[in-house]
Design a protein that fits this description.
By secondary structure, the protein is an alpha/beta fold. The protein has seven helices and 13 strands. Strand 12 and strand 13 form a beta hairpin. The chain starts with a strand and ends with a strand.
């Protein structure tokens, strides 16, 4: 795999991680063909407005073509869209649903062989990891680690805020975790890691600034 961007979160309306996405688009040739897997939501209702925002955003960044992989697509059609793309984009939503759907449709196999650029935002970033940390909030009654696709051999937490440090330090005694705030990214390039914005590493109960 060529390069992966683990984006901690972005307000698409405000386009507040535009510089990170610009860099990913440049890595994918500057005017890439993009395929979007918007499979991370429990329902596909109200998808049009979100899709139009992404479509307009990616056009402004220079995308020459933008396709959406539909969950109803046959595997052959999904594979065609992936093969014709230079950049795969995995948006936010529910990480557990995204992982399940990507595995059920064998997209994880396509991702392992893919030689383009992959951008995972929020749930999309979590899905690519070995394990992903889902912290307690209105939708999740407990903090838990769930298995990702394991495309990379490390674990991540997105939408990181210092208020979660206690939980992260406790969990990092079992697993090294990269905590990525919104508007920041961890970049994986054939085994090498670099960082855009502040990304933190939690390991053995301690927190350090990554990089």
């Amino acid at each position: 795999m060529k390069k992966m961007y683990f984006l901690g979160g972005e307000n698409i309306v405000k386009r507040d991680s535009q510089e990170i996405n610009k860099k990913a688009f440049l890595d994918a040739g500057g005017a890439p063909a993009v395929v979007v897997f918007s499979w991370a939501r429990a329902s596909f209702d109200k998808a049009y407005k979100r899709r139009k925002r992404l479509f307009d955003y990616f056009r402004s960044l220079g995308a020459i073509a933008i396709e959406f992989a539909e969950y109803s697509d046959r595997l052959e059609e999904v594979a065609r869209k992936v093969e014709c793309s230079n950049l795969i984009y995995l948006p936010g939503g529910l990480a557990s649903i995204l992982v399940e759907r990507l595995k059920n449709r064998s997209v994880d196999r396509l991702l392992r062989k893919y030689d383009g650029v992959v951008v995972g935002r929020s749930a999309g970033a979590l899905a690519l990891a070995k394990k992903c940390l889902v912290t307690k909030n209105g939708r999740n009654p407990t903090t838990r680690m769930i298995s990702g696709l394991g495309i990379v051999d490390f674990s991540v937490k997105v939408h990181y805020k210092p208020s979660k440090d206690g939980e992260l330090k406790r969990l990092s005694k079992e697993e090294k975790i990269y905590a990525i705030p919104e508007r920041s990214a961890l970049v994986y390039d054939n085994g090498r890691l670099s960082f855009m914005g502040n990304v933190y590493m939690f390991q053995n109960g301690k927190k350090v600034l990554a990089g």
